[in-house]
Amino acid sequence: MSAPHMLADLWSDVRFRLRALFRRAEVERELDDELRFHLEHEAAKHERYGVPREEAERRARLTFGGFDRVKEDTRDARGVQALENAMRDLRYAVRGLRTHPGFTLAVVTTLALGIGANAAMFGVVDRLMFRPLAYLRDPASVNRVNLEYTRDAEQIEMGAIQYRRYLDLVRESSTIAQSAVFHPAPLAIGIGEEAREMNVSAVSASYFDLFDAHPVLGRFFTSAEDSIPTAAAVVVLSDVFWKTRFGERRDILGQQLQVGSISATIIGVAPPGFVGGDETKPAVAFVPVTTYGNAVFPKHLNDYHWQWLHMLARRKPGISEAAATTDLTHAFARSWDDERASDAGRPSIAAAHPHATISPIQELRGPDAGRNASIVLWICGVAAIVLIIACANVANLLLGRAFGRRREIAVRLALGVTRTRLIAQLLTESLLLALLAGVAGVLIGQIGQSVLRTLFLPEAASVGVLDDPRTILFATLVTLLAGLLTGLAPALQSGRADLTTALKSGVREGGVHRSRTRSALLLAQGALSVFLLVGAGLFVRSLHNIVAIPLGFDVDPILYVSPNLRGVHLTDKDSYLLTSRLAEESRSIAGVEAASQVLTAPMYSEESRSFSVPGIDSASERGQFSLQMGEHDFFRTVGTRIVKGRGFDSTDRRESPKVIVVSTAMANKLWPQQNALGKCIKFADTLPCNTVVGIAEDIKSNDIVGDQSMQYYLSIEQEEPAQASVFVRIHGDAEPQAEMLRKRLQPLMPGTSYVTVMPMRQIVDPTMSSWRMGATMFFLFGILALVLAAIGLYSVIAYNVAQRTHELGLRIALGARARDVLRMVLGEGLRFGLAGIAIGVAIALAAGHWVQPLLYDESARDPFVFVAVAAVLVLAATAASAIPAARAVRVDPSIALRTE
Question: Do 233 and 342 fall within a single domain?
Fold first, then answer.
């Protein structure tokens, strides 16, 4: 049969089934007419052979069989019966759920919480780890290129590469079809009061070739505009920036826009959703990478000193990742040789072992993922556990409901309903509940994802659950799975009902097996809740330990003021005087306690100088030493204590003897068992000594954990560096005052230059993000799991009390005291709780090996956490059992004895 005929037959079949479903009466009349026609035709055939009319009709009916049976067979043959049965089951389920609104609400709410949590989490994790960049062509063939080498027996990962290195790799590799580099950078866009720092991406012209994207206005820049020495000052805007800043005006092409220090000509607008190489920090503008390099570090654009670019590469068709890795490693080795030709101090290839690797384009799946990737994966598992607890809870409720309907089910089976039909009907009910929960869960996920985005994707474009087809598909699959998981056990057990027992009473034998199943589900809920709460406790304690780490400087009252000249040319002296004016203006503002010029900011920027110490060989190579400069009020401004000697004062001027303050760790490293005060440090053989006048407490300058750097401080008034910033100490919390301070200082900036004011908290908090993320999510999901487990325990105990009404009434009638009944019911709940605690503690102890690397200064087997969680679970079990226990005490014996 030809394809058109097959499609026509298929469409005819679909139309018939739809008519049979929605115009049932009309189709039934047509079927009756058709059967009567065939019956009369058969009877007429018998009459032609002389058979009397009545006998002819009887023989025709015998030939066809029962009229109703023929109709059923016809419906089955046409596939209509299955649809009718499904619709009948659906209508029956709707009537049943409407009859018990409390039960329906409990099930839908419980499942919705589990589905919503997983939908919200999936939307975030998908964007972080699995979703390809928008418009990226053939994502499976595009990789991020990573380079590493060995130094002093330690593997050094190059987080970024030089532009010169990129050109070497492109030239020397043979397995790469396309390649590109990009560099995300926060730059001030605009002039004067309209200027704001935004994410800008410096990209190579080839970057756009990796994508199937076309500008909605104008064009992208070309390779001629992105090359040395003809780099052009052009910019391509993002669609969002074009709409918000320029109102979608189409006459902006050719206009000038100040981007950092570049006065760029607008040449195009990227399509919607084109965000650059990092979706977590979408770029609002794209400039040529060579243009940006020439504006920032022109001397190092074409050498091997400035590592700043991220490289993407598309493999040629048929080239595996292993083959591309080998090829890029060889290319890196040849580039290493080229670098040694210009820098003889670089180690040989044999010593350095330069090696290239390729990884997925998503940063959290690459070698630089760090602790955050592990935290994200753990939180995904936690969300799945919450869904399992919710499913176990709902399965328990459905088991109880099925047990309460045992007589009804037995009667239906006795009347001829097949067990298969019965199971299908019960599964239809559970799937309907899951569907309602799925709809509610998507709405919960929409709300929950806004919370998750603040933790995981604070700068990404807002995409909610309802706007994301991938998340909707995931939520649909989870909903169907939840419906099957929750309904399967009740359906199968109802299908195995013992008719004789159920029709006689259905209480004793019929409930034993179900009680064991419900008990197992309840124990699973309790155990998993313990595991999540232990995880929450460990991460909260770990976060507390992180927050308690002495940083050596204050955070909340400090604002970091950074002037950005954006191409305005000032002499070194004028540049220093500008920073001095910013500090002086800051001191004049109400609420400012102190201000000081500085050279760097901890956790944000770093400087160092080679120095020598008389009597010590290679002193500056004995560790990692970081340089900071400050005014006479520096240590009071930042809150760093002087533990010995003094800090800088007003007498430390350019013409005064040079002074230096060192950290405690640096003093102990250079002069162990000696008094460091009065010691000499020289920064050049011909310069006089900088005399150590003070010892300051150690600070965390690079990383909040494992920071081994040592700090030394020079008087900025003696050095007068060209590039400096300002620390401003505010009375109280500094963050709300940042914009006010920026507006006060901006008029002091010359020309197109711009001042950035950043709360120190904004700089420090990202270093704690993984622990804060883990603590927040484990805590939220742990509390949710505890609530679900408590509801599950309550439902089981309450149901058992209802089933034992006769027994409890008999006990009370025979003289049982109220406290005995209370103790019996509470004891049942506590036994469940204690058993769940024991199992959960065992699971948590077994998982401690994998959790430990994610914690700081906290044991994954901390007895305090385990005891605290056990106490919480005991309280929850007691509270969940208290209401059913109180109800059991109030049982009226006369009524209870009549219930049987």
Answer: yes
